[in-house]
């Protein structure tokens, strides 16, 4: 579904993403993990074409993303981040509907989709669709952020430390929900975190980054059983 081929990003003469080659299969929940500064967010933003590559190629279903129109890319790739960036003066419904509106869906299509998505996250649509972001708890706002990313039914969902700012209990329940949503929707997800416990909970595959390089890619079991090097061993050892 998503293929990165020798992807490199250079800032100030330094490869912050260094020749990363990775393929993410349809329906995978691939967790991209590594310490702060290892290049995870930069990698994700290149998949989304929020920033250009210095060299290499990224393909979505075989098609070079450089040749996909921006609007089409927004439809095909959803993006959810920690600071959700919900528009404060817009209701939950209006926030979720950003991409559908760009795509000129009718208001009844939008309304129905918002209902489905709130349902998916067990938020009562009649109660929540008209609320404003300041009326939501952190966990509810984060659910709306993910719902927004899923609004136009993208093929791929990118998530950058989406639950990082939440308290541990809310975080646990959102991880559980994400697992369920992944199972129910079969979405291809690339999920960035620096938290090994989160990775082990969620991932069908884990890709470990260190200083811009991919150091190991495997199932959680493979990573736990046969860490590729001391870095991975130490990193895995930090989880409990
Ligand atoms: P991570 O998400 O793994 O914490 P990032 O991808 O955000 O890491 O950053 C990787 C490295 O690239 C860091 O050293 C960061 O300082 C650097 N970096 C990120 N964005 C820029 C930028 N716009 N200009 C210069 N350096 C950047
Ligand atoms: Mg980051």
Automatic annotation (TrEMBL):
Keywords: ATP-binding, CBS domain, Nucleotide-binding, Transport
Keyword match ATP-binding: yes
ABC transporter domain span: 2-236
GO terms, molecular function: ATP binding
Family the entry assigns: Belongs to the ABC transporter superfamily.
Protein name, as recorded: ABC transporter ATP-binding protein
Protein source organism: Fodinicurvata halophila
Residues shown, of full length: 1 to 240 of 359
């Amino acid at each position: 579904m998503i293929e990165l081929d020798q992807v490199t990003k250079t800032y100030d003469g330094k490869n912050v993403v260094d020749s990363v080659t990775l393929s993410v299969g349809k329906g995978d929940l691939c967790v991209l993990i590594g310490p702060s500064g290892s290049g995870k967010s930069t990698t994700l933003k290149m998949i989304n074409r929020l920033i250009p590559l210095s060299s290499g190629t990224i393909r979505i279903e075989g098609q070079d993303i450089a040749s996909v129109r921006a609007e089409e890319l927004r439809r095909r790739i959803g993006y959810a981040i920690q600071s959700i960036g919900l528009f404060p003066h817009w209701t939950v419904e209006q926030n979720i509907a950003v991409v559908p509106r760009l795509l000129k869906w009718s208001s009844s299509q939008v309304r129905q989709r918002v209902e489905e998505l709130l349902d998916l996250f067990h938020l009562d649509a009649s109660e929540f669709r008209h609320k404003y972001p300041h009326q939501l708890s952190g966990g509810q706002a984060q659910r709306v952020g993910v719902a927004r990313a899923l609004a136009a039914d993208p093929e791929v969902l990118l998530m950058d430390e989406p639950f990082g700012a939440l308290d541990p209990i809310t975080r646990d329940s959102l991880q559980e929900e994400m697992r369920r949503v992944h199972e129910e929707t079969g979405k291809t997800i690339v999920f960035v975190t620096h938290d090994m416990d989160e990775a082990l909970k969620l991932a069908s595959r884990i890709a470990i980054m260190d200083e811009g390089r991919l150091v190991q890619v495997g199932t959680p079991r493979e990573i736990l059983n046969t860490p590729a090097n001391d870095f991975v061993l130490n990193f895995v050892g930090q989880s409990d």
